[in-house]
Structure formats: C-alpha cells, structure tokens
Design a protein that fits this description.
Blueprint: E1 13-14, H1 27-40, H2 56-68, E2 72-76, H3 79-90, E3 94-98, H4 103-112, E4 115-119, H5 124-130, E5 136-140, H6 152-155, E6 162-165, E7 182-186, E8 196-200, H7 202-211, H8 213-216, H9 223-239, H10 241-255, E9 265-271, H11 273-285, E10 288-289, E11 291-293, E12 303-308, H12 315-330
Parallel strand pairs: 1-10, 3-4, 3-5, 5-6, 6-7
Antiparallel strand pairs: 2-8, 7-8, 9-12, 11-12
Helix pairs in contact: 1-9, 2-9, 3-4, 10-12
Bound molecules: 4'-deoxy-4'-aminopyridoxal-5'-phosphate.
C-alpha cells in the first residue's frame, strides 16, 4: 500500500495502466465527470433501488447495451461486484471456468456455493471431458495477464449458458454477431473511469436488478464515474482510439517478442520470480514502470513482466522500453 514518489506514474513512462485508450485524462471525459458531479452531487447517497438511481445510469445502460449489441444492461459498483452479482444471483450448481479466469470469478463461485470446475486454458477438449452436468461456462474475452482471447464461439457450443468477462475489451466495434448470453464489463479500464456493468437479455437484466445483492446492498456509483464513462464511450465511437492502441502494441511486438498476445497486454514471461523483480527494478532505474507479476496471480513458474500498451504512448516511449528489454534479454 506504500506509494513512494513516482508510484502514480509521474516522472516515469508508465506501462502498468489499464487505461488502454488514454481516456482517464481526456479533458472531455474529466469535464463530463465534473459536470455530472455538479448536477447530481459527489455521491449517489443510497443504493440504486433505494433512491440512488440518478438518471445517468439509464443513459449509460442504453448506450452500452446498444454498443455491445444486447437488449439491456445494468451498472454495478465495479467489475468485481458485477461478477459477484451475476454468479451469486444465478445460483448455478456448477461453474466451468477457464483455468486463467480472473480472481473475482473464483471468488464469485465460492460465494455462490457452486462447485468450481476449472478447465485448461482455452482447451475445449479438456472442457468437454470435464462436463458431467449442466452448469454455467465462464471465461474472459481477453485474458488479463496473457492478453490472448477466448474462443467464445466454441464456448457457446456446449449447450450451456456462457458468461464472458470483457474487462479488458478495447471497445473495437463488434465484427461478429456471436453473443454470449451474459457479458460482463468494467468502466475502470478502457473507459478510463470506474464501475462495472452486465449486458444481457431484458429478462435477465430485470432478474439481476431484483436479485443481485451487490446492487441492492451497496451504495450506487457516484455520478462522476457514470458521467465520465458516458463521455468516454462517445469519444470511442467518434475518435476510434483503439486503432492507435493496437498500432502501438504491434509496434512493440515488432521490436520485442511477447508471449502469444495479439492485443495491448503483452506478457514477457521470465519464469523466475527473482529475475522478474530484478527486471522491474532495472526498468524503473531507466524511468520506466512495468508490473512484475508473480504467483498466485499467475501460475507457478510463469512470473512475468506485464506490459500494458495504451493509445497515449508515443513511439519514442515504446522504443525506450524495447531497448531496455532487449538489454535484459541479452544479459539475463
Ligand atoms: N475481470 C477481470 C478480468 C479483471 O482483470 C478485473 C480487474 N483487474 C476485473 C474483472 C474487475 O474489474 P474492476 O476493476 O472494475 O473491479
């Protein structure tokens, strides 16, 4: 919890941020958040069902449902709470989750009292072998520590409801009309704000609104967060900042070999925990922040640097990172 000088990123080139589209500091996003606070206040004052439901919620819900191609959406306090809310409200007997699915999915399964069955990462044959009764299939759209994507279409081929956690989405417009029944998202990463949401059918969203405990027993998101997220979504549609983010990531990939990723999260797997901590320190001495990720966040033996590229990075910043990493791999 220490925050030494520079930890916030000031004075460093920061490759630890999930602000993939650089929107958290976009002047229009900040101004929209401030305007929302001025109109509705600093806090929501109550949970959504008990008077805290300021009008920005339905504005965001309509926009995000349309953008993601769903009938309806509902906003939660965070992505973590959205995952808890969905899985506890569904009360499934079994949850089949990818081995690399995020910690909040595992916490949700525990809280729901469901049986957790984990299948090998993106391995559909392994999932097929493990299925012994109907349940909920859960995976991530883009994996948080590896940057690779789940085979959503194949996950939908088992005749069971599928929930996809799209926390690391870049909000590129959908190219396929494959839609898992339940889509969970966060406003805390590419939207540059804070909060979570769930998209689904109108009936399912109505069910969540009456049943999901994190919606009922926790104070609603403050107006600032929702106002800022609405503006971020508008800017994404207008300016398409994901194009720049992907170009930047491709540029880094052309200079260093990431492990398997095609998105903006680029892992450099080193295996050894001491080695990865030493690499983090060397990068820091060179004015660069990169997160060293170790077990239990990632499986044993896969300690790594997690490089997060955003639309806001410049080519020269990426060059500097690539040069230091090349030095690290030359002198292991
Ligand atoms: N799902 C995934 C895959 C995540 O990586 C995260 C955050 N690290 C969350 C959910 C939680 O989202 P939030 O930060 O909005 O609580």
């Amino acid at each position: 919890m220490r925050a030494p000088k520079g930890e916030w990123g000031e004075g460093f080139i920061n490759f630890t941020s999930n602000d993939y589209l650089g929107l958290s500091r976009h002047p229009e996003v900040v101004a929209a958040g401030v305007a929302a606070a001025e109109l509705y206040g600093a806090g929501a004052r109550a949970s959504r069902i008990a008077g805290g439901n300021h009008p920005l919620f339905s504005e965001f819900e309509e926009k995000i449902a349309a953008y993601k191609g769903y009938e309806a959406a509902t906003v939660f306090g965070s992505g973590y709470l959205a995952n808890l809310g969905v899985i506890t409200a569904l009360e499934p007997e079994v949850v089949y989750a990818d081995r690399l699915a995020h910690a909040c999915i595992i916490d949700a399964v525990k809280l729901a009292g469901a049986k957790l069955v984990r299948f090998l990462h993106n391995d559909m044959a392994d999932l097929a072998r493990r299925i012994d009764r109907p349940g909920l299939v859960v995976s991530e759209e883009v994996f948080s520590m590896d940057g690779d994507a789940a085979p959503v279409g194949e996950l939908m081929g088992f005749g069971m409801p599928v929930m996809i956690d799209g926390a690391h989405s870049l909000y590129k417009p959908q190219t396929s009309n494959l839609k898992p029944q339940i889509y969970v998202g966060t406003m805390s990463k590419a939207l540059g704000s804070y909060g979570g949401y769930v998209c689904g059918s109108k009936t399912f969203i109505e069910y969540l609104n009456t049943k999901a405990r994190p919606l009922i027993y926790s104070t609603a998101l403050p107006p600032f967060a929702v106002g800022a997220a609405i503006k971020a979504l508008e800017i994404i549609e207008r300016d398409r900042p994901y194009v720049r983010a992907v170009e930047n990531a491709d540029y880094l990939r052309s200079r260093v070999t990431g492990d398997g990723s095609r998105g903006v999260i680029i892992p450099v797997i080193m295996g050894d925990e001491e080695k990865v901590l030493a690499a983090e320190e060397i990068l820091r001495e060179n004015g660069i922040l990169v997160a060293a990720i170790r077990p239990p966040t990632v499986p044993k033996g896969t300690a790594r640097l997690r490089i997060s590229i955003t639309a806001a990075h410049t080519k020269s910043e990426i060059d500097k990172l690539a040069n230091v990493i090349a030095g690290l791999t030359r002198n292991p």
